[in-house]
């Protein structure tokens, strides 16, 4: 097969979507090197990063880059023209991974990764521009995609509830997995945690934004301290997102500003250290397509408290403590109980390691390659373009 694959979000500063694209591309190239892989460092015009690396980080006998664009305008002109398919060499498959979706392919099978539509649940979780851009891409996929890859059963069900016209048999779940493969790697302590004891901090990983729910987590942490909880710092590991400009002020109002460590964006090495050495991983997200930090923390043996919402129970299974993310009081008491019960903490660590073993990139890559083959063997979807 000649596979065109969107890697536009896999550069520096990547988040969940970029990690999915990077890891599954790497896995596919590793297990099926006989295929030709055309990797697209820019894809569409909604998401654009001119800093995408020029050097190819993917090795294989049949791996090459597709067109690279240095401005959003040139990317838009290329990806929206009527003969884009011919300009790409008419690959068998083009796989979109960044919400944007082309609509003009006549023979190439279009595969689209669907992450989530949290922006349809609560408009306050993101900006108007991002909400419109994401929804436009998802809507175009419902019109033009031949197959949809959902990253969880919850995401699959949500997509079909919004777009019931899309053929259910052409939508499959391919789970993301952890990008960490070296289980002997101790990681690297972030400089912001110098002096903090190993096993002596609560950890939250994720972009600081409304959907990730750090405001309620901060309130729960303040309540935990008020209840007499061990005064371990709360570490927030992630870059600042949208609509959280007053978050530091909010921490000060709670009286915990000096007890919260905000690391900013951390490297993979630093993230490994954080997962390995936290007292527990706290992930109170309000809505997730998958919830990668839950899986990655469990892979490193982190006891986990997380949400009952959307896809997260699929990932956490019975290994984590599952709570309503809108109930800071319940979170505070769960933290207090866990801080006082080493036996439960040890049991949660063992359960986390076992649960994380259910997600493996080779299996996900094999599933995806099988879907590509099925797409090629099936008629192209008949839609109005």
How does the SSE layout of this entry go?
Blueprint: E1 2-6, H1 16-31, E2 36-40, E3 63-65, H2 72-80, H3 84-87, E4 93-96, E5 109-114, H4 118-121, H5 128-144, E6 147-150, H6 153-162, E7 171-173, E8 202-205, H7 214-226, E9 234-237, H8 247-254, E10 260-262, H9 268-277, E11 280-283, H10 292-299, E12 304-307, H11 312-316, E13 321-323, H12 328-340, H13 342-356, H14 361-377
Parallel strand pairs: 1-2, 1-4, 2-3, 4-5, 5-6, 6-7, 8-9, 8-11, 9-10, 11-12, 12-13
Give the gist of this structure:
The chain is α/β, with parallel strands linked by helices and 385 residues long. The protein contains 14 helices and 13 strands. Helices cover 39% and strands 14% of the residues.
